[in-house]
């Protein structure tokens, strides 16, 4: 254990966060996301919600200030989003600074971004459209 590091952050996740450079992207996915078939490094965080993990990592993680740093999947045509999911994520991301706008992109565009991501963290999140991409910024 380390002082001031949340016990929700596994050693593997801490290593990944430290290895990321500015502009690298990381996905925190719901339990249903096809992470293993998309490619990059996959870390399991079973039993943890995305919002709890966001709350744990945001004190350690600088969001990009030059490009939209937060991306979520848009609802498929004919489907609906639960606004409480984004609200929970915004709340978690607002611990250190005001939460930037969250951009919504379609499912396949999100999958393409996930293929290029530095890592995908599969959580126990069960909320529909509960995936979020974070773009790392320059750490001051």
TrEMBL record:
<dbReference type="InterPro" id="IPR023751">
    <property type="entry name" value="L-fucose_mutarotase"/>
</dbReference>
<dbReference type="InterPro" id="IPR050443">
    <property type="entry name" value="RbsD/FucU_mutarotase"/>
</dbReference>
<feature type="binding site">
    <location>
        <position position="107"/>
    </location>
    <ligand>
        <name>substrate</name>
    </ligand>
</feature>
<comment type="function">
    <text>Involved in the anomeric conversion of L-fucose.</text>
</comment>
<protein>
    <recommendedName>
        <fullName>L-fucose mutarotase</fullName>
        <ecNumber>5.1.3.29</ecNumber>
    </recommendedName>
</protein>
<keyword id="KW-0294">Fucose metabolism</keyword>
<comment type="subunit">
    <text>Homodecamer.</text>
</comment>
<keyword id="KW-0963">Cytoplasm</keyword>
<dbReference type="GO" id="GO:0005737">
    <property type="term" value="C:cytoplasm"/>
</dbReference>
<dbReference type="GO" id="GO:0042354">
    <property type="term" value="P:L-fucose metabolic process"/>
</dbReference>
<dbReference type="InterPro" id="IPR007721">
    <property type="entry name" value="RbsD_FucU"/>
</dbReference>
<comment type="similarity">
    <text>Belongs to the RbsD / FucU family. FucU mutarotase subfamily.</text>
</comment>
<dbReference type="GO" id="GO:0042806">
    <property type="term" value="F:fucose binding"/>
</dbReference>
<dbReference type="Pfam" id="PF05025">
    <property type="entry name" value="RbsD_FucU"/>
</dbReference>
<keyword id="KW-0413">Isomerase</keyword>
<feature type="binding site">
    <location>
        <position position="30"/>
    </location>
    <ligand>
        <name>substrate</name>
    </ligand>
</feature>
<dbReference type="GO" id="GO:0036373">
    <property type="term" value="F:L-fucose mutarotase activity"/>
</dbReference>
<feature type="active site" description="Proton donor">
    <location>
        <position position="22"/>
    </location>
</feature>
<feature type="binding site">
    <location>
        <begin position="129"/>
        <end position="131"/>
    </location>
    <ligand>
        <name>substrate</name>
    </ligand>
</feature>
<dbReference type="GO" id="GO:0062193">
    <property type="term" value="F:D-ribose pyranase activity"/>
</dbReference>
<comment type="pathway">
    <text>Carbohydrate metabolism; L-fucose metabolism.</text>
</comment>
<keyword id="KW-0119">Carbohydrate metabolism</keyword>
<dbReference type="InterPro" id="IPR023750">
    <property type="entry name" value="RbsD-like_sf"/>
</dbReference>
């Amino acid at each position: 254990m380390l002082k001031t590091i949340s016990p929700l952050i596994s050693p593997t996740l801490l290593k990944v966060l430290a290895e990321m450079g500015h502009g690298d992207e990381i996905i925190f996915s719901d339990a249903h996301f096809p992470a293993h078939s998309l490619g990059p490094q996959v870390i399991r965080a079973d039993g943890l919600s995305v919002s709890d993990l966001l709350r744990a990592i945001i004190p350690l993680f600088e969001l990009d200030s030059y490009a939209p740093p937060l991306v979520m999947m848009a609802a498929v045509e004919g489907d609906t989003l639960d606004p409480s999911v984004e609200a929970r994520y915004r709340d978690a991301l607002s611990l250190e600074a005001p939460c930037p706008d969250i951009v919504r992109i379609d499912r396949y565009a999100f999958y393409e971004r996930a293929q290029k991501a530095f890592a995908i963290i599969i959580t126990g999140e069960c909320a529909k459209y509960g995936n979020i991409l974070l773009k790392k910024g320059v750490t001051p």
